[in-house]
């Protein structure tokens, strides 16, 4: 989805290195999410943010940190990468529909991260 | 957040067949149940969704069946085509957190 972009698309790094994955969106949504996808494990929520000042831990936040620089930008950092953080990472955005808890999320194209 | 259990992990059907993917949940607070479709190299995209106040929803060849008492829901793909080959994820939304909990996914292959 061109409205949600992720950079880089692929990254190979070494154990112990700091790495940042970036997400930008032009959908005007307040809510942004970071997920990790591993084969057989589905999509697991790392962090989510409902606005610039509201950041929350997800299911698997250990070893990760995030920064919401603006409504449109949400970055994920690995302070000291380790091999079991090798995965496909997705950013997503959503907004509320008035009157309900409808929560369609729009996903970016993903970043494939390999930690050697 | 409660788990959403999805089965089978993979599925192979012939063109024209009707693959069925099942999901079960425990958290009765869930109030929105979407299915996402993911093609290789792409992010997941919403396919179809249902709320617990209806038992069935159809959109084209895709149907969600929902059984509130059993806390189960399923995706049926009528007249499946090779272009439907993808990974399918069920999910559930808890309005207290406004986040989605995903199943582990089903890799569907529709053979020509």
Task: Please render the helix and strand layout as text.
The complex is a heterodimer of chains A (116) and B (112).
Chain A: E1 4-7, E2 10-13, E3 19-25, E4 31-38, E5 42-51, E6 54-57, E7 65-70, E8 73-78, E9 87-94, E10 105-107, E11 111-115
Parallel strand pairs in A: 2-11
Antiparallel strand pairs in A: 1-3, 3-8, 4-5, 4-9, 5-6, 7-8, 9-10, 9-11
Chain B: E1 4-7, E2 10-14, E3 20-25, E4 33-38, E5 45-50, E6 56-59, E7 62-67, E8 72-77, E9 86-94, E10 99-102, E11 106-111
Parallel strand pairs in B: 2-11
Antiparallel strand pairs in B: 1-3, 3-8, 4-5, 4-9, 6-7, 7-8, 9-10, 9-11
List descriptors.
heterodimer; A: 116 residues; mainly beta; 7-stranded mixed beta sheet; 4-stranded antiparallel beta sheet; 11 strands; globular; B: 112 residues; 6-stranded mixed beta sheet; 5-stranded antiparallel beta sheet; 0% helix
Oligomeric state: heterodimer
Q: How big a fraction of the residues of chain A is strand? A: over 45%
Summarize the amount of helix of chain B as a percent range: under 10%
Spell out the helices and strands of chain A N to C: EEEEEEEEEEE
Helix and strand sequence of chain B = EEEEEEEEEEE
Report the span from N to C terminus of chain A: 29 Å
The class by helix and strand makeup of chain A works out as mainly beta
Specify the biggest β-sheet of chain A: 7 strands, mixed
Task: Walk me through the structure.
The complex is a heterodimer of chains A (116) and B (112). Chain A has strands at residues 4-7, 10-13, 19-25, 31-38, 42-51, 54-57, 65-70, 73-78, 87-94, 105-107, 111-115. Chain A is an all-beta fold. In chain A, strands 2, 4, 5, 6, 9, 10 and 11 form a seven-stranded mixed β-sheet that branches. In chain A, strands 1-3-8-7 form a four-stranded antiparallel β-sheet, with no helix packed on it. Chain B is mostly beta strands and 112 residues long. Chain B has strands at 4-7, 10-14, 20-25, 33-38, 45-50, 56-59, 62-67, 72-77, 86-94, 99-102, 106-111. In chain B, strands 2, 4, 5, 9, 10 and 11 form a six-stranded mixed β-sheet that branches. Chain B has a five-stranded antiparallel β-sheet with strand order 1-3-8-7-6, with no helix packed on it. In chain B, a hairpin with a 4-residue loop joins β7 and β8. Chain B is globular, with a radius of gyration of 13 Å. The interface between A and B is medium-sized, with 28 and 24 residues.
